[in-house]
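Same chain as my last thread, 223 residues:
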Amino acid sequence: MSPHRIAIVDDHPIVRRGLRHLIAEQPDLELAGEVPNRHEALRALATLDPDLMLVDLSLDALVDGLALVRELHAARPGLAILVMSDSDAHACAERVLRAGARGFIDKHEPTDVYLERIRTALRGGIAVSRDLSQSLVRRAVGHGTPRDEADPTVLSDREIEVFTLIGEGVGTREIAHRLGVSPKTIETHRERIKAKLGLSTASELVARAVRFLLESKAAGSGH
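reply #2:
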């Protein structure tokens, strides 16, 4: 069988170099090409004809990585997409899987885990980092039932605004800037939201906000 063709999308040359060398050492994989940003990745999809794309989630900004995953998936639904990030997996995995990726990997994982995740994604499986909870994965791909929890409708209008921005990956200072208040005020809103929804940690807050955003969009689109 011909080697599987892997394309790399990452804006850090040293990361691309490491992945290039890793792929070159594998008899069942070959490098299709590498690009540094979202726009070149979209143009290269047809010319490189990869079986799998390794995509850096951050690129120029978090929204660019997520947008690229959605666009690649829309352009070629059968393409295997494996997202790389040094962000909290519990906060990001559900979002990238819903966007169309087949897996998520922490950039700090050892090379054997990279290879395992690449091959799992190429086989059509859901390839996730080892420390990611399976319950989150099941929810992200549409299986399982979330634990009982308070409905976000208990939140005030301003809390819903903050909650939505958290789900979009916006940080506390940027939320404060957008809403014209102080970061301390946003921190107070975050604590009140956690208390109303029965959440204990910042990671739980982010994961719940991401799911709320996805569910809202799905309801709005009729899916």
